[in-house]
Write a structure and sequence with these properties.
Alpha-Beta Plaits; 4 domains; Uridine Diphospho-n-acetylenolpyruvylglucosamine Reductase, domain 2; Uridine Diphospho-n-acetylenolpyruvylglucosamine Reductase, domain 3; 7-stranded antiparallel beta sheet; alpha+beta; homodimer; 18 helices
Chain lengths: ~450, ~450
């Protein structure tokens, strides 16, 4: 590794082999991170896309693993350098490069932090991205794109893959390309979507062009109660079917309604924002579709507590392992999916908690966000095996917005079928040395077998 | 070719070498089609995806060109077998396979004709796709997807790439894959968008899953006049900026307003449809953004004449060659783009007509649809060179919804830069024998140099 560190220093001004940096770069916020973490050999901190390209070219030549990382807030192990090598810390590629107010577009570096981006867009430009994941203060633009992030207002603004108009990407061999053509183009395939969700396995996103909106002039809130989770799901389906897209539309099952709102019902939290005429029409449609009116109280409570998280390391010290399983499916499958996943995990020895809510809706379906917990580290793998089995048997997608990382890599080939074999072909074409984020997405690489489980 | 025809017959029940079939399959509706057309050696008409796969595997093995074709209504030569070989006529893969009413999804074969699809969705299910290109009666689902089609109602419903939730694709080596995970997924890159717009060069779409909407219960129409095209563009920009997405929003310059509506202004035709509350709010926002009120007359006139076309073969016999150039750009570039393209073509010797309208709008920009005509076949290439130069110099996309085909293939490498080189890498990975639609998108193949110009 001495040779590659020297070579790295010629490619990138900031390269660290300090113990504290290596420990820090070894993990993200995945429940099992502490048990799997392996220190990288070096952390490279490029300040430009050209430095990213030089690092990749050097590592391709030397056959050294490269794990791209943003702020490492991911919860699936996607940024963990489980085969050692180099962690490519992209936080130095931060900040807004340009705003086109007429076209409502921003160019931002991959390392731009979410809250800094949103604050500057609002205060300096009167604009918003509309992307507000729970991790907004600890995640980056590049991380969002690499993992197909969703924000809490996605029912109006879409997921990050709906917001992106183009990318700058550094390839494994050091080429720098630009993808996308705003606002739409019919000039061959859109390579943007090849890199969005690739979790750093096909290329490294260095900058993104994202679509903006005026900071919303109006906001209306409401909450409703439903006798059953299935009745609430059906109301959400009907709202979307009528073309209404309220920014926030979150339906909690009885376990989560009790815990979060102290209400013995299935709470639907609704908030829309934007042009006043459209917000009013949208909220009128929501009101039209039924449910017991609960006032704005639950919305305020949700807003006050929406960023609360558990300290998973502390829970692990108590022997409790928890995780969240966010999945997507068509409306026709959702009621069965909810039942099947909760029942499958409940059937695993050691399970102490299962609950769920609907978190992001579309005309054709929604995301179901399930929380599980169990006793002992041995509980974790069987619980996920049970959940993934139920998701795939019901026709759901294994993830809606957390991504695959290490946590779900072993399920991906079966989930995608022969399309995964095509992904392998594309990986070999774009990263022939197999250096990019080895161990993720179930893709081939040159550094030994799968690292986990 | 005798050998491959025999081999084809073992892969596909219907294979024709009849003279009339070969002549018919030689061309599409491109202005220059008659001057460039070359007869294929055979037309294969598969009835199943398995037959498609078998034909592709046979042609990969034998190194024979395969040009996939739908109803050949394209206007860029994309379905023309300019290197001979086999035309793969996909019209036998027609019809609706399944409708999921709750999830608002339809599975339809690639050969399904547009009007048949829409008629069945409306009459049997009370649903609509919302995709209504001028070619709806002479184009197929697979053709729409291969070329990134847009319909006249796209400002509400999106382009075909926004409507597609997944694809069945046959690869050059005969593998059949399924892409996509409805409604959204974070399970690696979305390979759907790799094949959408690939114009048959990376794989053959055999079936698609598309998103639907209820047949619209309400519709409101209006028209407005603007003193200048730029003022009208700015009104459209402000309407989209407020989040309103009226299904139809078409702004005609003075030349087209005079020709189509006999009005000496810049006519904006607006029509929205859907849930009544949202349609009212949308049309209120449109009215808010100014323009002289013209009543519903221009909308009715547009509806009555929207499918009118010229007989380009007849015009060519008179020595007149015309074409349409549809391009996309951000709102900040559109006024300059309009001026630059019209001026560039007007400066070419022999030009007799230039005009334009805005046809499809998004938050970040719009499609500009320019009509040009000139005297003599020699006028055509310089006119396109001038137009493409102006588009690229202004930062526009070379096509918004017609695609690239033969007509624009020579401009694509420069337009995409190094991203085109990546497309070449992907082509080599997915079609190593280079058999798929040779001559299109400026991609490498094994059958001699570019066929045109």
């Amino acid at each position: 590794m001495v040779d590659i560190v020297e070579r790295l220093r010629s490619a990138c001004a900031q390269v660290s082999t300090d113990e504290a940096d290596l420990v820090d770069a070894a993990r993200d916020r995945w429940t099992m991170a502490a048990t799997v973490a392996r220190r990288p050999d070096a952390v490279a901190r490029p300040a430009t896309a050209a430095e990213v390209a030089d690092v990749l070219a050097a590592c391709s030549e030397a056959g050294v693993p490269v794990t791209p990382a943003g702020a490492r807030s991911g919860v699936c192990g996607g940024a963990m350098p489980v085969h050692g090598g180099v962690v490519l810390d992209l936080q130095g590629l931060g900040g807004i490069v340009a705003v086109d107010d007429a076209s409502l577009l921003v160019d931002a570096g991959a390392g731009t932090m979410g809250d800094a981006l949103e604050t500057e867009l609002r205060s300096a430009h009167g604009l918003t991205l509309g992307h507000r994941p729970q991790s907004v203060a600890i995640s980056t633009v590049g991380g969002w794109l690499a993992c197909r992030s969703a924000g809490q207002y996605s029912t109006r603004y879409g997921k990050i893959e709906d917001m992106v108009a183009g990318l700058d990407v550094a390839l494994a061999d050091g080429r720098l390309i630009h993808t996308g053509g705003a606002p739409r183009a019919a000039t061959g395939p859109d390579l943007t979507q090849l890199f969005v969700g690739s979790e750093g396995t096909l290329g490294v996103i260095t900058s993104a062009r994202l679509r903006l909106h005026p900071a919303p002039p109006a906001e209306i809130r409401a909450a409703y109660g439903f006798e059953s989770f299935a009745a609430g799901l059906d109301a959400c389906r009907r709202i979307l079917r009528r073309g209404a897209t309220p920014a926030v539309l979150r339906l909690y099952d009885t376990a989560e309604s009790e815990r979060s709102f102290e209400l013995s019902t299935n709470v639907l939290v609704v908030l829309d924002e934007g042009d006043e005429m459209l917000v009013r029409a949208t909220m009128d449609i929501v009101a039209d579709e039924g449910g017991e009116r609960l006032g704005e109280g639950p919305v305020e409570r949700w807003l006050a507590h929406r960023d609360d998280t558990y300290d998973t390391d502390e829970l692990a010290r108590q022997g409790i392992f928890g995780d969240t399983i966010e999945m997507a499916a068509g409306w026709s499958s959702l009621p069965a999916l909810y039942q099947a996943v909760l029942a499958a995990v409940a059937g695993v020895e050691g399970t102490v908690w299962t609950s769920g809510h609907l978190s992001h809706s579309y005309g054709d379906g929604a995301c179901l966000y399930v929380t599980i917990a169990g006793m002992g580290a041995d509980w974790y793998v069987p619980a996920w095996d049970a959940a993934a089995g139920a998701i795939l048997a019901t026709g759901g997608a294994l993830s809606h917005h957390h991504g695959i990382g290490l946590a779900k890599a072993r399920f991906l080939p079966a989930a995608l079928g022969l399309a995964h074999a095509v992904l392998v072909d594309l990986k070999r074409a774009l990263d022939p040395a197999g250096i990019l984020n080895p161990g993720k997405l179930g893709l081939p690489h040159g550094f030994g077998g799968p690292a986990w489980p």
